[in-house]
Design brief:
The protein is α/β, with parallel strands linked by helices. The chain contains 6 helices and 11 strands.
Length: 255
């Protein structure tokens, strides 16, 4: 089985090193094509207005001066164009990708691009800030990742779906199990701006991203991570809200 790895934290990120170890448990044909620098929150950005450069760092390891989506496209169209991967893994992200975050996550975007190009894809993230740990327990993702991926591959999933896996930020033996979840929704605003004065006049802004615990419902990705479970959420790109679509269909005759 040929596996392609990417991420949004950059080709030198700790999470990608962990992902390489996970993938090595599954196959001896593992390739890496990841952004040269951090691209967190890049979503599905594509570098249409700037050239993208590919650099070989070592055998089967490449960096791209672009986004996670760029990385998957270049890998599929050039690096592995004669022998496509059988699986794409994106991550392991330094921090959770839950609830609304999935829409701007570069980690999720890498998996979505792989899915769009016909390859089964999984995004993997390691939560932080929930269990009070001072450092990220990368060993939790490494210990549980290989067997979980094997199980998911045995079950399979639709071609237009990616799987988003989130590991809780707790020790290996504290993980309570696996829950198949739906995308959650936060009940508070996490984004803001820090407005500052520029020394030469005018103002500038740092975009901020807060964190707070709420009380998400059972069955959601948030609840699973809060409770110490590994969350597996099937995602797809169809953003149509069917209930509203049905309610508005009567307007067709008026247009």
């Amino acid at each position: 089985m040929r596996i392609l790895l990417t991420n949004d934290d950059g080709v030198r990120a700790k999470g990608l090193s962990v992902l390489r170890d996970i993938a090595a448990e599954l196959s001896d044909d593992v390739w890496v094509c990841a952004p040269e620098s951090e691209q967190s929150a890049a979503s599905r950005g594509v570098s249409l207005h700037n050239p993208v450069r590919l650099r070989k760092l070592e055998d089967k390891v490449f960096s791209v001066t672009g986004t996670p989506t760029d990385s998957v496209i270049v890998a599929m169209q050039d690096v592995l164009n004669t022998h496509k991967p059988d699986l794409i893994l994106s991550g392991v992200n330094r921090g959770q990708n839950l609830a609304e975050d999935v829409t701007f996550s570069g980690t999720i975007a890498g998996a979505l691009q792989g899915m769009q190009m016909g390859v089964p894809s999984i995004a993997l993230s390691l939560a932080r800030g929930f269990q009070g740990a001072n450092s990220l327990p990368w060993e939790t993702a490494l210990a549980h990742g290989p067997d979980l991926i094997r199980q998911l591959l045995e079950m399979s999933w639709p071609e237009n779906v990616v799987l988003s896996v989130n590991f809780p930020d707790c020790p290996v033996d504290a993980v309570k199990g696996i829950q198949i979840t739906r995308q959650g929704q936060r009940d508070f605003q996490m984004s803001g701006v820090d407005k500052r004065d520029h020394p030469r006049g005018g103002q500038y802004y740092w975009l901020t991203y807060g964190a707070a615990l709420s009380n998400p419902p059972k069955g959601s990705d948030l609840r699973a991570i809060y409770d110490g479970y590994i969350s597996v959420t099937p995602l797809h790109t169809d953003l149509t809200h069917i209930k509203t679509l049905n309610a508005l269909e009567s307007l067709n005759s008026k247009f």
